[in-house]
Specification:
Elements: H1 9-12, E1 19-20, E2 23-28, E3 31-36, E4 41-45, H2 48-53, H3 62-69, E5 73-74, H4 79-92, E6 102-106, H5 134-144, E7 151-157, H6 165-182, E8 185-191, H7 199-207, E9 210-215, H8 220-226, H9 234-249, E10 254-260, H10 268-277, E11 282-283, E12 285-287, H11 293-296, H12 298-301, H13 305-324, E13 330-331, H14 332-342, E14 362-365, E15 370-372, H15 375-381, E16 389-392, H16 398-402, H17 405-412, H18 435-442, H19 453-470, H20 474-485
Parallel strand pairs: 6-7, 6-14, 7-8, 8-9, 9-10, 10-12, 11-13
Antiparallel strand pairs: 1-5, 2-3, 3-4, 14-15, 15-16
Helix pairs in contact: 5-6, 7-9, 10-13, 13-19, 14-20
The structure holds iron/sulfur cluster.
């Protein structure tokens, strides 16, 4: 029988003292940063990676023992450590066991605001044909109950969902009945600008334990420039209603999100200070998304990734200084990434997941009964692109949805471990795939990562955070861990 392969000594002369485990690396400021499959990291002097892969690193050094303990290499007595590595990777992917846990119901596309960057393509407040019917509400909720998770989140979105308050009441009632029947619990969140809120509505939200996520873009000069509203200042209405909402449903049950427009870029400190002044414990510095009116107004509202990263860095510097001086304010996006870097756990934030959260951890039931893979997918649909329509609550089963060509297309680009560019990227365990955004901006779900804003933003922010981690400043470490301990749940940070 002819030998098909040469023996190992043919290639190296002797068996190596250690084996490599999968890892990626990048160079940063004169050092090398190694990251393994479980997201553990290690900074090493320049040249160590070369020694490591040539099996020339001395096994008697402290660095070797560190790399072994952190699962970058293994040797003869490593087998228990390999089991630990497997457990860590399983823990990072634990979100897959639950199926879809975040269910978004678009009760109406109507809204009485006309924000410059509106990503959902809102309709005017009188156009009730853009409201969800009771039949679609019922079918959506039945669909939602088919997922295995014992605890689900139902998030009401719009438009402005409080314009369809009776539909919201109906949906909550049916959802509670169905949840009791299926042995599930549900958390409710309403994403609202609060402009049409009344005491009657607040009383109901309090009695039903429904949380509020509202929009605050910064001080009046920024908020009113971004969020236009006929009949007066959106800022004044929002601030007054945040106070009322807190009185009714409790301070901790009212969150706020901001969107960064071109105009906002000049005000990083002022936006942060506004969140402190209004008593918020967190701020989410969100870039504008390329959907809806934001595409039409891009000349006025858009900017490139480097401009956003400058804004983000300045705001983060200011937030950290405030924390050092005793003011507790976390930046949500940094916290989500830090949790991935510094802990073994996953975060539940669908944009930074692999496989992607779209369709796998989140589904959207649109006002017309159609099911979309994510909030961005339904925004795209309002721009006449139905690529990520996975089905219809009146026609489809779970099986027909996951077998649909739309779902298959989504899945084909959903694992960043296998995407060109990401597969070799050191930041891959901390990042996501976002096929919907790549399809929207590059007409391809995989896309060309280096020229995409998703990659540019994440590359910039993760590098920024590693530079800060690398300083090993104990006060900064304490701030970062305090943020991670208090991080908000994913469901409160997905509203647009
Ligand atoms: S999107 Fe960019 S930063 Fe994220 S894993 Fe891919 S290559 Fe890395």
């Amino acid at each position: 029988m002819p030998r098909l392969f040469y023996t190992p000594p043919t290639y190296g002369g002797h068996s190596p003292k250690y084996q490599l485990l999968p890892f990626r690396y990048t160079r940063m400021d004169g050092e090398e940063l190694l990251v393994n499959e479980a997201g553990e990291y290690q900074f090493v002097p320049n040249g160590v990676v070369d020694q490591l892969v040539r099996h020339q690193l001395s096994t008697t050094t402290g660095l070797y023992q560190t790399l072994k303990a952190k699962h970058f290499v293994h040797d003869g007595d490593s087998s228990p450590l390999l089991d630990i590595l497997a457990t860590k990777i399983r823990t990072k992917k634990a979100f897959l066991e639950q199926g879809v846990t975040l269910h978004i119901m678009v009760l109406t596309l109507r809204c009485e605001h006309s924000c410059q960057y509106c990503q959902v393509s809102r309709q005017t407040a009188d156009r009730t044909t853009y409201d969800m019917s009771t039949a679609s509400i019922e079918r959506s909720l039945s669909f939602m109950m088919r997922f295995p998770g014992k605890h689900l989140t139902l998030e009401f979105q719009g438009g402005e969902p409080l314009l369809a308050f009776e539909s919201l009441r109906y949906a909550v009632g049916v959802a509670k009945e169905l949840a009791a029947k299926h042995g599930k619990t549900i958390s409710f969140v309403v994403c609202t600008n609060l402009a049409v809120s009344t005491d009657h509505i607040f009383r109901y939200l309090r009695d039903e334990n429904i949380k509020i996520s509202t929009s605050l873009d910064g001080p009046a000069i920024v908020h009113n420039a971004n969020r236009l509203r006929s009949g007066g200042s959106s800022y004044d209405v929002t601030i007054a209603n945040i106070r009322r909402a807190r009185e009714w449903i409790g301070h901790e049950n009212v969150g706020a999100l901001m969107t960064t427009s071109r105009f906002s870029l000049a005000y990083p400190r002022e936006i942060v200070d506004e969140y402190v002044a209004q008593g918020f414990g967190s701020i989410f510095l969100r870039a504008i998304n390329p959907y809806g009116f934001a595409v039409k107004t891009v000349e006025r509202t858009g900017y490139d990734s480097s401009e956003f990263l400058s804004f983000y860095g300045a705001a983060l510097d200011h937030i950290i200084t405030l924390n050092r001086n005793g003011t507790n304010l976390m930046e949500v996006y940094a916290t989500l990434i830090l949790a991935k870097i510094l802990t073994p756990y996953t975060t539940g934030y669908v944009d930074l997941q692999s496989p992607t959260g779209a369709g796998i951890s989140v589904l959207v039931y649109n006002y017309d009964g159609k099911i979309y893979a994510s909030d961005e997918s339904r925004m795209l649909a309002e721009m006449n692109d139905q690529t990520f329509r996975l089905g219809n609550v009146h026609e489809d089963t779970y099986l027909s949805m996951v077998q649909s060509p739309a779902f298959q297309y989504l899945l084909s680009a959903s694992c960043n471990e296998a995407l060109p560019g990401c597969a070799e990227c050191a930041y891959q365990p901390y990042c996501g795939a976002d096929p919907v955004r790549h399809h929207a901006t590059q007409r391809d779900a995989i896309g060309h990562r280096p020229t995409g804003t998703f990659c540019q933003k994440n590359l910039g922010i993760i590098t920024d955070l590693f530079r800060r981690i690398r300083t090993a400043d104990p006060a900064l470490q304490r701030i970062f861990f305090a943020w991670i301990r208090n991080k908000p749940h994913g469901s409160l940070i997905s509203c647009d």
